[in-house]
Amino acid sequence: MHTQSIPLISPAIGTRRELASLNFGPRDAAAGQQKIYIQAALHADETPAMLVGVMLRRRLMELDAAGDIDAQIVLVPVANPVGLAQHVLGQFVGRFDLASGRNFNRSFPALAGGATALDGVLGPNAQDNIAAVRKLMRETLAQQKPRTEFESLQHALLELSLDADVVIDLHCSLEATLHLYTSDEAWPQFEPLARYLGAEASLIATDSGGQAFDEAHSLSWWTLQQQVSDATLLPPGTIAATIECRGQRDVTYETAARDAEAIIDFLRARGAVRGAPRTLPPLEREPTPLAGSEQFYAPTSGILVHRAAPGDLIRASDPLFDIVDPLTDETHTVYSHTEGIFYMRRAIRFVTAGAPLGRVTGTRQIRTGVLLGA
Fold first, then answer.
1. Is the pLDDT of residue 52 over 90?
2. Percent of the chain that is helix, strand, coil (3-state, to 5)
3. Based on the number of CB atoms within 10 Å of its own CB, is 198 exposed (0-12), middle (13-18) or buried (19 or more)?
4. Which domain holds residue 324?
5. CA–CA separation, 75 vs 79, rounded Å?
6. What confidence tens digit (pLDDT) does each residue in 225-278 have?
7. In Å, how far are 55, 97, 172, 314 from 220, measured between CA atoms?
8. How far apart are CA 79 and CA 45, in angstroms?
9. Among the three residues 261, 286, 311, which one is the final residue of a domain in this structure?
C-alpha cells in the first residue's frame, strides 16, 4: 500500500486540509488491468460508511501483502476532510458546506463537458476509444480551476476517480435498511454486489437530477454514448454505484466487516482480487426505478411517531407515520399509496409542516425532475 495526499485550497490563513487516498495493487497499470475506486463518507457525518472503509483497508492490506490484488484499487476512507471538521454547538454538520450551504454530494462538474465533440476521436477499437475519451475528460477537468476549498475537494475526488472502471461511493442514510443506487446500464454488473450485500432495495436511475458524485461518472459516459451510432464502439468507461450503509447510528464492527467482505467478494467476481468469491446469494429484492419511490411529507407540525420500521414490506394504505399535535392532541396519520420496501426515514422525532419523512420503493414511475433529496 502507498498513500497519496492532495492538498486542498486553504480557506483562511493558518488552515490547511488534504485529501488522502490509499492505493493497493500494482502501481503501474498493465494492459487491460482494472482500476477500482472506493470512497467513504463524502457526507462527512455518515460514520457507518467510514467504518466500512476501515474494514476494507484492513482486508486490502492483507490481500496486498499476499499478492492477491490484480487491479489498481484506490480507497479514500475520508472523502470529506472539510465536513469532518464542521461542528456547531456540539452537532456534527457533515452533509452541507457551512461556508456556502452547498451539499457536498451535489453539483459535481460534468466530465463530458469538453468531450462532446467525438468526431475524429473514435476508431474501430472500443478500448482505444475509452482511453481517448478519458484523456478528453482529464483535459476537461484540468481546465476547471477551483476557487474555493469546496470546489478543490470535488476536483480532487474527480482527479482520483475519473479513469476508474468501477466507482463505489459509500454513504448512509438517517435511519435506513441497506440499499444502493446505480444506473440502468450499470445494474447488470452491480447486481452481484447487491446480492453479496443483501441489499433490501436497489434504486435505478440514469439521471437523478442532482449531479451526485456517482453520476458525474456514469451520466457523463451515457451522455457521450448517445452521440455514437454504434454503441459497441464506446462502451461505458466507468460504472458507478452508491451504497447506503443503513442509518447513521448503525456503527458496529460486525455490520461493517460484513459489508466490506461483500465488496471483496464483488471484486473477486470481477477478477480484481484473486480467489473464488462466495456462492452468489439470492437477490433480496428486485431493482425498482428511483422515480417509483414514494416520498412522504409531513402535512402538519408535531411529534413524529413511526408506525413502520426500515426494511418493512409496505402495502398500499398501510400507516407509516403519526404526527401528534402536543397542544390539541390531534393526530394526523400518513399512509402509503405504494407497495414496496420502507427503505429510509427521518431520524428526528419532531417535524415542521412539509418536512420530508421517508420513502417506500415502487415499481411504477410517479416522480420526475430531481429525484434526490437535498
1. yes
2. 30, 25, 45
3. middle
4. 289-360
5. 9
6. 988 888 899 999 999 999 999 999 999 999 999 999 999 999 999 999 999 999
7. 31, 25, 24, 35
8. 11
9. 286
Q: What is the CA radius of gyration of the chain?
A: 21
Write out the H or E segment, with its range, that includes residue 133.
Answer: helix 126-143
Q: 143 CB contacts (<8 Å, ≥6 apart)?
A: 114
Q: What's the whole-model pTM score?
A: 0.97
DSSP string, 202-240: EEE-S--SS--HHHHHHHHHHHHHTT-SSGGGS--S-EE
Residues 167, 129: one domain? yes
| Cα distance between residue 276 and residue 12, in whole Å | 50
| Cell digits of residue 270 | 470481477
Contacts (Cβ under 8 Å, ≥6 apart) of 24 = 1, 60, 61, 63, 64, 69, 72, 73, 74, 75
- Domain shared by 336 and 255, yes or no: no
Ranges of beta strands (E only) in the chain are: 2-7, 18-24, 35-40, 72-76, 87-88, 91-92, 166-173, 175-176, 179-182, 201-204, 239-247, 288-289, 294-297, 302-306, 313-314, 319-324, 331-335, 340-345, 350-351, 356-360
Q: Tell me if residue 54 falls in helix, strand or coil.
A: helix
Task: Provide the number of structural domains found in the chain.
Answer: 2
Q: What is the pLDDT of residue 114?
A: 54
Place of cell 428526528: 348
The domain spanning residue 341 has which CATH number? 2.40.50.100
Q: What angle do CA 183, 189, 192 make, to 5 degrees?
A: 115
Query: Residue 230 maps to which CATH number?
Result: 3.40.630.10
Burial 22-57 (b: 16+ CB within 10 A, else e): bbbbeeeeeeeebbbbbbbbbbbbbbbbbbbbebbb
Where do the H-state alpha helices sit in 294-354? none
Question: Is residue 273 packed enough to be buried (19+ CB in 10 Å), middle (13-18) or exposed (0-12)?
Answer: buried
By C-alpha distance, which of 273, 294, 200, 317 is closest to 34? 273
C-alpha cell at 338: 405504494
